[in-house]
Amino acid sequence: MEEIEITVVGAGKFGTGLSQALIRNPWVKRIDIKARRKEIREEINSRHQNSRYLKGVKLDKKITASPFRFDDIGEKNIVIIAVPSYAQRKVYEEWKAYYRRQRIIGTSKGIEIRIEGETLKSLMFSHQVAEEKLGEIEYWHLSGPAFADEIARGKETTNVLASRDFYSAKNLAETLSTKSFKLEPSDDLIGAEFAGPAKNYIAAAMGRLDNQAPAEVTRATRFVELILEMIELGGKIGVQPQTVFGPAYLGDAFLSISPKSRSYRSGLGLLKRIKERSSQPTFESPLTLKEWKIAFDFGVFFKDLEYLLLLEPGLEAENVGPKEKIIEKYLLPLPDEREVWIKITEIKRSFRYLFQKEERIARRNH
């Protein structure tokens, strides 16, 4: 087997932790982390640590950092995109002029939601953003239970590495797996990408529930209900059962209902902020556009492709009212109901287009 060089785009917590997890593979010769901040690059290269994002973890000397540019990425490099979903488009735009068909692994646990002004411009899975900007690509998606500090310290876990072709996923999974960071191959690319926002939704919902200090039996029941909700929604877009009951979905959801999870913490914090802003327990004040986008990134998700859940189903139900009223109050501070429903129609149309596109690709590949 040839030695492997990896480029990790993004010097945040997960990008750094994943680098340390993968460098334990004996075939990985070097990992270069693309970092925008000069002080992070200098610290990784001189002190072999990233104290801003991964305090207390010593990095292997084969991990280096370089400026955030793409003209120096080798043609045979594996490129891991370790930035949030909202930042992927800009990365691919910067890379496009220098792209040489390198293999790409996405790690985002969200769906891109791009808003210009008050207009929804896109709603895409990670590989679709990459295809739109780079054209024909070789793409895999990594998903599963992985707290950055734990995988960096060599704690055992299994993640899913998915692509449209099983044997392609199998070959790369076997190539990159280590004793502590095992990769399970899958041809359910949409399932692996869907698992991230699904577990975010579950974690944030559990965080919101825990604001009420529920009994353990209530908590367990709600967790199962949330899993079943996401299974139902996943089934509508063709997520495979083995993905649902594997590490990408169920494993990551279980991991994420803890205070270490950002999605869980956002669920705790979002409801508190709404309560603090409102003089009534009915939470009348709407979220701003920025707050809505943050809420989406950290756990809000679509249910039945028709409405956004920014509150728990049933929470203060006698005061909040029907779900369409929740949209009216919390989606955006729009002036009238007609504009709200126009936006919902845009969302539904975007989803329908994305899923039809995936069906065409699947038929062509088979």
Tell me what you see in this structure.
The protein is of the alpha/beta class and 366 residues long. It has two domains: 4-187, NAD(P)-binding Rossmann-like Domain (Rossmann fold, 3-Layer(aba) Sandwich); 192-349. The protein contains 15 helices and twelve strands. The protein has an eight-stranded mixed β-sheet with strand order 3-2-1-4-5-8-9-10, sandwiched between helices. A two-stranded antiparallel ribbon has the order 6-7. Helix 3 packs parallel to helix 4, helix 7 runs antiparallel to helix 8 (216-236) and helix 7 packs across helix 11 (262-277). The model is unreliable at 277-345 (pLDDT under 50).
Keywords, separated by commas or semicolons:
single chain; 366 residues; alpha/beta; Rossmann fold; 2 domains; eight-stranded mixed sheet; two-stranded antiparallel sheet; 16% strand
Rg result: 21 Å
Biggest beta-sheet profile:
8 strands, mixed
Q: Percent helix among the residues?
A: 40-55%
CATH architecture of the largest domain: 3-Layer(aba) Sandwich
Q: How many angstroms separate the termini?
A: 30 Å
Going by CATH, what is the homologous superfamily of the largest domain? NAD(P)-binding Rossmann-like Domain
Which percent range describes the beta-strand content? 15-25%
Sequence of secondary-structure elements: EHEHEEHEEEHEHEHEHHHHHHEEHHH
CATH topology of the largest domain: Rossmann fold
Characterize the quaternary organization of these chains: single chain
Low-confidence stretches: 277-345
Determine the number of helices (DSSP H or I, runs of at least 4 residues): 15
Q: How does the overall form come out from the CA principal axes?
A: globular
CATH class of the largest domain: Alpha Beta
Strand order of the largest sheet: 3-2-1-4-5-8-9-10
Count of beta strands: 12
What would the average pLDDT be, to the nearest integer? 78
Structural class designation:
alpha/beta
**Overall tally of structural domains:** 2
